[in-house]
Amino acid sequence: MNSTHQVYISLGSNKGDRLKNLQEAVDLIFQKVGKVKSIAKVFNTPAVGFEGDDFLNTCISIQTRLKPQDLLEQLLDIETRMGRVRTKTDTYESRVIDLDILFFDEDIIEKKSLTIPHPKLHQRQFVLDPLKSIAPSFQHPVLSKTITELSEECKDDSTIEAIKIWLKNPSKQFNFSDYNYIAIEGNIGAGKTSLAHQISQDFNAKLVLERFADNPFLPKFYDEPQRYAFTLEMSFLADRYQQISDDLSQLDLFKDFIVSDYDIYKSLIFSKITLPEDEFKLYRKLFYLMYKDIAKPDLYVYLYQNTERLQENIKKRGRDYEQNIDDEYLEKINSGYLDFLKKQTELNVKIIDISDRDFVGNRDDYLWILNEIITAKIES
Predict the structure, then answer these.
(1) Among 129, 261, 263, 298, which one carries the catalytic annotation?
(2) Whole-number Å distance between alpha carbons of 87 and 80
(3) Using an 8 Å Cβ cutoff, are 13 and 21 in contact?
(4) How far is CA 107 from CA 1, 68, 140, 200, 299, in A?
(5) Measured between alpha carbons, how far is 108 from 141 in angstroms, rounded to an integer?
(6) I want to staple 314 with a disulfide (CB 3.0 to 4.6 A). Which of 69, 155, 189, 224 is the partner?
(7) What's the CA gap between 127 and 108, in Å, rounded?
């Protein structure tokens, strides 16, 4: 998983429908850059450095996986898309939208095309006032002062007036309040862990991840499947039972819901593929004895990937013991999942075909999947 960065961005507009421009910019940042965590008050401020109409200014905090230069390019593209035309003159001028990176984590960057922190933010009350409303204690990494302190010391005496209209946070369109527990499932390499991570970070969910990496029998199984199949499946059975019992019983008051990258029924799906019939019947009896009282997810999401994409993802993540998995085994797993999901009646299931999607590298695909998930309950 790429690391997530905390970024503060200032927004300003003094041309056309100023409030509409700010809202459109916030929406586009959400669509193209990352989650909008918070939006400051909107302030009416005079033009500084040139004769022009008053600005509406605000600041937002976002989470993004983009690197600073990539972020800058996306913001410039949004400005262009909204109709801003940059001239070669050094003088200030009216603009439909102005987007500036104020802080990127606590990084200090000095390049010809990009300086972070913004070199003039501490001199501009129209930046400090809105920024103070969402990050009063954030410390400037160069000046070593909080935003509140910088605001108090700022010599800019411009008239700054808060307006009583709030911008809408586009993140709120994805409402997970109907769910207490979501399980993300899929074949080997489908991306279930990546998606669970991303949802957990963006929507304040408790993350439950399968502890497969600690299983000493997994590499042995891929080398000698017939010899280690039963041992592997029994070890997974015990470990999943222990983990899911612990995680579902421990209430986290600071999280809104639970998202996991597996569901307990995967034990039955995989064991039916890997075990002989007599061993599978024994295994199934043990499974139902252990799991009869375990809570089931409110929503079971199955990420379907075709075999070619699965193999690409497996190669990309580079786990040595997975590199020799053949297509036939992956196809059996896909068939096993789909057969299970068609027959069962206890789970609220959403199958999402992501064979042509890259939700890690393409934010549009990620937002598309989120929409598929939140509409699942309505359709079911």
Answers:
(1) 261
(2) 12
(3) yes
(4) 20, 10, 10, 25, 39
(5) 7
(6) 189
(7) 19
326: left (phi over 0), alpha (psi -120 to 50) or beta: beta
Tokens of 351: 């199958």
Angle at 51 (CA atoms; ends 45, 52), nearest 5 degrees: 55
Query: Considering just the CA atoms, what is the radius of gyration of the chain in Å?
Result: 26
CB 96, CB 82: distance < 8 Å: yes
In angstroms, rounded to a whole number, what is the distance separating the alpha carbons of residues 11 and 27?
12
- Residues of the chain with confidence (pLDDT) below 50: 380
Let me know if 358 is a catalytic residue: no
Q: Name the strand (E) or helix (H) holding 152.
A: helix 147-153
Percent over 70 (pLDDT), the chain = 96
- Which amino acid does the sequence have at 156? D
pLDDT score recorded for residue 317: 83
Contact in structure between 25 and 99 (CB atoms under 8 Å)? yes
* Complete domains list, the chain, with CATH: 5-168 (3.30.70.560), 174-379 (3.40.50.300)
Cβ atoms of 229 and 282 within 8 Å: the answer is no
Q: How far apart are CA 60 and CA 41, in angstroms?
A: 9
Q: Are 6 and 102 in contact (CB under 8 A)?
A: no
The per-residue pLDDT for range 104-138, each reduced to its tens digit, is 999 999 998 899 999 999 999 999 999 999 999 99
Phi/psi at 270 (5° precision)? -70, -40
Beta strand 181-186 pairing with 257-260? parallel
**Number of neighbouring beta carbons within 10 Å of residue 195:** 24
Residue 279 Cα to chain centre, angstroms: 40
Q: Beta-carbon neighbour count of residue 137 at 10 Å?
A: 9
Peptide bond into 117 cis (omega under 30): yes
Q: Hunting for tokens 């809408």 — which residue is that?
A: 168
1: Cβ–Cβ under 8 A, 6 or more apart, which residues?
194, 197, 198
